[in-house]
Write a structure and sequence with these properties.
Layout (H helix, E strand, L loop, with lengths): L11 H7 L27 H16 L8 H27 L4 H24 L4 H5 L13 H6 L2
């Protein structure tokens, strides 16, 4: 359970994919954004945009990315970019100043923070093995139609 003892509610689409949806527990008027991937924001750097291009089409096809999720995916892409940059900095500091324990530790902390941020955001989109294990896609998930379109048309 999260800090503070309040569990966040799961979206209905995720409950359906996980096989835990019950009509009596799903809100009747839940927002239903279109399952269309937005364009990547211009402020993302090269690594962030490459991450977007890698994951957005797949997430859109699975119905896990909608027009309302652009900022969340952008935050994940930015976290990946920070992780890559922090890892490069750590390698450089370790190589150039192997005796500077303080600089190495600061670089390690940057890597750890970026990794933690990336991991937390990746769970939101099912981008880790553990988070994917909680999703049970129907067999027709790969026929081209968005999973969300199928769920919401029922």
């Amino acid at each position: 359970m999260p800090k503070g003892g309040v569990r966040r509610k799961k979206p209905t689409a995720l409950k359906v994919l996980q096989g835990t949806a019950r009509p009596d527990r799903c809100p009747a008027n839940e927002p239903k954004p279109k399952p269309i991937a937005p364009e990547p924001p211009a402020w993302l750097d090269r690594t962030g945009k490459a991450t977007w291009r890698k994951y957005a089409p797949m997430l859109e096809r699975l119905g896990l990315l909608t027009e309302a999720d652009g900022e969340s995916l952008a935050a994940y892409c930015a976290a990946v970019s920070r992780y890559v940059a922090a890892t490069k900095r750590l390698k450089k500091v370790t190589r150039e100043n192997p005796d500077d324990i303080e600089a190495i530790r600061k670089a390690e902390i940057s890597v750890e923070k970026a990794e933690q941020s990336m991991r937390l955001l990746s769970n939101e989109f099912g981008l880790t093995p553990a988070s994917r294990a909680r999703i049970n896609l129907p067999p027709e998930a790969n026929d081209g139609e968005s999973i969300l379109e199928k769920i919401w048309s029922q």
